[in-house]
Amino acid sequence: MTLDLQDRVALITGASRGIGYAIAKALQEHGARVVLLARDEDALKSAAATLPSPGPDHVLTLVADVTDTESVRNAVAQAHSWLGRLDIVVNSAGPQLTPAELTETPTDTLAEYLDAKLLGFHRVASAALPLLSDSGSGRIINIAGATALTLVPNAGVTGITNAAVLAFNNYLASEAAKKNVLVNAVSPGMTLTEGWTTRHEAMGKAQGKTAEDVRNGITAATGIRIGRWADTAEVANAVVFLASDQSSYITGSVLEVDGGISKAVL
């Protein structure tokens, strides 16, 4: 068995930037045809143009909002009809972390996070499962986050949302097994996306430090055992593994790609 994904079709939500884009790039590098889904059409076009194989036979862009059920259904149907098959779905779309204490966070904010991520994942999976290949190549991969597994200060809203995603992942794996579709999650830790880079620069400017100083401080405070933040490609590599035939006996699992930030003993 190899990581070869030749001619398989993968739909990636939140694919215009960050981890979602890195996943689309890695899947394409291993032979998959990729469907990029996000809300911003210009960002999607820019992302598609920078993929290793940007041509129309190798990449399709779809504008859709994962908080809108009809928008999701239409997009998933288009993804399937593009080449007449759908093998892999990666749920990556979700709001960025906004640090705040739970008791100071409006209830509406928690509802918005759950709608965009947990319910968004549910909308996509519900639309995709009937269309996914049942030949053994069918995969649903959910991007959760280390805040579901380890306490990070002022990340309660994100942690609750990600924990709900992990429960969703396990239940969905049980149901999808009846169609020979594997469902797993990847739980990234602190990952250096464009959004975090910008935030570190702003924090550094306010504190009279460099962005790297800020990042190193967060690394030390959160106890990342490897001692650095992840590159988005490192998260994407885990998704490639779960999308490939090498993961043929794995379902309902959570692959932690967090540099050792999670420290559960059991």
What are the key terms here?
266 residues, Rossmann fold, seven-stranded parallel sheet, 44% helix, 14% strand
Explained architecture:
The chain has 266 residues and is α/β, with parallel strands linked by helices. It is globular. The two termini are 31 Å apart. The chain has helices at 18-29, 41-49, 69-83, 107-116, 118-128, 156-176, 194-207, 211-222, 232-243, and strands spanning 9-13, 33-38, 59-63, 88-91, 139-143, 182-188, 254-257. The chain has 9 helices and 7 strands, in the order E-H-E-H-E-H-E-H-H-E-H-E-H-H-H-E. It is 44% helix and 14% strand. It has a single domain (9-191, 230-257), classed as Rossmann fold (3-Layer(aba) Sandwich), CATH 3.40.50. Helix 1 (18-29) packs across helix 9 (232-243), helix 3 packs across helix 5 and helix 7 (194-207) packs across helix 8 (211-222).
Summed up:
The chain is α/β, with parallel strands linked by helices and 266 residues long. The protein has nine helices and seven strands; from the N terminus they run βαβαβαβααβαβαααβ. The chain has a single domain, classed as NAD(P)-binding Rossmann-like Domain (Rossmann fold, 3-Layer(aba) Sandwich).
